Amino acid sequence: MRYEGVVCVLKPPGMSSSDAVTDVRRIFGERRVGHTGTLDPAAAGVLPICVGRATRLFDYLVDKQKEYIAQIRFGAATDTEDATGIVISSSNAVVSAERLQAVLPLFMGNIEQTPPMYSALNINGVKMYKLARRGDVSSPVESKKRTVTIFELELMRQTAENTFLLRIVCSKGTYIRTLCKDIGDAVGIPAYMALLLRTRSGAFRLEDSHSIAELAELKEQGRLECAVTPMDMAVSHLPELRLTGLSQRNRRLLVNGASIRVDDGRRGIPMRLYADSDFMGLCVVDKNGMVRISVWLGSDEHIDDGVMLEGNVRENRHIGTEIGFPTANIEDYDVRALPEDGVYATIAVVDGKSYRAVTSVGTNPTVGGKRTTVETYMMGFSGDCYGRRMSVRFIKKLRGMMRFSSKQELTEQIDRDVKTAKQLFETQNIPTNL
């Protein structure tokens, strides 16, 4: 069964966010998997992971508030600003709860942070923590300073001498270990983050989370769907626009990427779009009262995946040219939006001109392909387009990826695919200006 939505993983300390993504990909049998914001390997807690087409919702989930419980320990500072680093300064002074409470208001609202040198930020294409490990960076980089927002900052309790628990609600991009280090600076005694637990990320909470072991057990029981938040519920913080009694013509226009007029006063904001009870995706109503689907997530019979890929055309093995169907191979696209393997009727746009097309997604096993490629045959196109930008809109899946006994058999099937696509475009009257 194919699952699409958001899975809330309970990440343990010691596991990286990318490791969690790999485990979810294996459990769900889905390659389009991605998290909505890195959680440090040493930290534990809520890690929402998008599965399938839900990866298209990344931009609508990543900006949400985060909530943490952090343990701050006074008396030492480390080079990583957490318990995994090397102590670089120390003090025997003792901090009282009252003294700590007095400085917390300084960190409310918009504050500036200089990210720690052991972070995943890039400097000239290299992650900062890699530069720090080899000695190329010896202190936080001031040019990477950023403004973040602390919405709530609460002293929960003292757990030992110089050790306290803080609850923090903050914006994305906040470094809690840097917050702890800066609080130490404000108190006048070095401090570091000893422990970190993320209790909420957007609408996803600790009580909604599942460990990797629990997900594997649910799969064994055939109950994996219990761990998946449906795509429309994952973005339930967005308002909804529900169109009732939609005509077949207007529904087809929406599905094919066109705009229709609606009676709704909201303009320019993302909304969840429903046609009666069917969730179609996200939309925006423009200033003229025209609505268009901006993120397709529906399951209409006319479109199997409805995704748009954009990338650069690169030279490949020219096998398509050899068999009479030259294709444009695109790379550098957003892999999170990649549809499942197969052959699709598509619309390709190069240099501002649209072409009816057929696109193959997969490894092309007949000709010994080793990696996934996206190759598009454009009807009526001549010449080459190497080095140019191309966008491909997927309209309908024609078939799955298949292995043929010969190139001749492959050629005959591609010819049938092209004829099927032509018939689809003509009978459905699908516009090419998508």
The shape, in one word, is: elongated
* Distance, first to last CA: 31 Å
Number of strands: 25
Mean pLDDT metric: 87
**CATH topology annotation of the largest domain:** Pseudouridine synthase
Query: How can the largest sheet be summarized?
Result: 10 strands, mixed
Report the portion of residues in β strands. Answer: 35-45%
- Low-pLDDT parts are 300-305
CATH class of the largest domain reads Alpha Beta
Structural class computed from helices and strand pairing: alpha+beta
List the helices and strands and how they pair.
Blueprint (H helix, E strand, L loop, with lengths): L4 E7 L5 H12 L4 E3 L8 E8 L6 H4 L4 E9 L1 E3 L8 E4 L6 H7 L5 E5 L8 E2 L2 E2 H6 L12 E15 L2 E8 L5 H12 L3 E11 L2 E2 L6 H9 L7 E2 L1 H4 L5 E4 L4 H8 L4 E2 L9 E5 L2 E8 L4 E7 L11 E7 L4 H4 L5 E4 L10 E9 L2 E10 L10 E6 L10 E11 L7 H22 L6
Parallel strand pairs: 3-12, 15-17
Antiparallel strand pairs: 1-3, 1-14, 2-3, 4-11, 4-12, 5-6, 7-10, 8-9, 10-11, 12-13, 16-19, 17-18, 18-19, 20-21, 20-25, 21-24, 22-23, 22-25, 23-24
Structure described in brief:
The chain contains ten helices and 25 strands. It is α+β, with helices and mostly antiparallel strands.
Task: Explain how this protein is built.
The protein has helices spanning 17-28, 58-61, 97-103, 128-133, 176-187, 212-220, 231-234, 248-255, 319-322, 407-428, and strands at residues 5-11, 33-35, 44-51, 66-74, 76-78, 87-90, 109-113, 122-123, 126-127, 146-160, 163-170, 191-201, 204-205, 228-229, 240-243, 260-261, 271-275, 278-285, 290-296, 308-314, 328-331, 342-350, 353-362, 373-378, 389-399. By secondary structure, it is of the alpha+beta class. It folds into 4 domains: 5-64 and 204-233, 2-Layer Sandwich (Pseudouridine synthase), CATH 3.30.2350; 66-201, 2-Layer Sandwich (Pseudouridine synthase), CATH 3.30.2350; 240-296, Archaeosine Trna-guanine Transglycosylase, Chain: A, domain 4, CATH 2.30.130; 308-428, Elongation Factor Tu (Ef-tu), domain 3. The longest helix is centred in the last third of the chain and has 22 residues, at 407-428. Mean pLDDT is 87; it is low at 300-305.
